[in-house]
Amino acid sequence: MEEQTYLTTEELAARIKYDVRTIRERLMDSVLLEGEHYFRPFGGRKILFIWDAIKRDMMILASQPTTFTTGIPMANGRTLHG
């Protein structure tokens, strides 16, 4: 079984160059999902982040084109390029 790297919020903030508060208030449960990117060991309050999953998903999202380069999706299924 492959060993994973677990990080505290402070350690993750240092690695990805984000503020601890930004991780807690903006990224958790929108981009970083419980059970996939982080977990609460032993049912406690402490949070450990799974570095390998976060790194993988950061690279996937970074390689995808943004809305600005591909256009804005419309309700009728077409794309607005403007």
How is the biggest beta sheet arranged?
Answer: 3 strands, antiparallel
Total E-strand runs: 5
Radius of gyration: 16 Å
Query: What order do the SSEs take from the amino end to the carboxyl end, as H and E?
Result: EHHEEHHEE
What is the helix content? 40-55%
SS class = alpha+beta
Overall average pLDDT: 86
Give the total of domains: 1
Which strand-content bin applies to the residues? Answer: 5-15%
Q: Tell me, what's the shape?
A: elongated
Read across the widest sheet, the strand sequence of neighbours is 1-3-2
Distance between the termini: 49 Å
What does this structure look like?
The chain is α+β, with helices and mostly antiparallel strands. The protein has one domain. The protein has helices at residues 9-16, 20-27, 51-63, 67-70, and strands at 6-7, 38-39, 48-50, 72-73, 79-80. The strands form 2 sheets. Strands 1-3-2 form a 3-stranded antiparallel β-sheet. The protein has a two-stranded antiparallel ribbon with strand order 4-5. Strand 4 (72-73) and strand 5 (79-80) form a beta hairpin. The longest helix is centred in the C-terminal third of the chain and has 13 residues, at 51-63. It starts with 5 loop residues before the first strand and ends with a strand. 9% of the residues are buried. The model has no long low-confidence stretch (mean pLDDT 86).
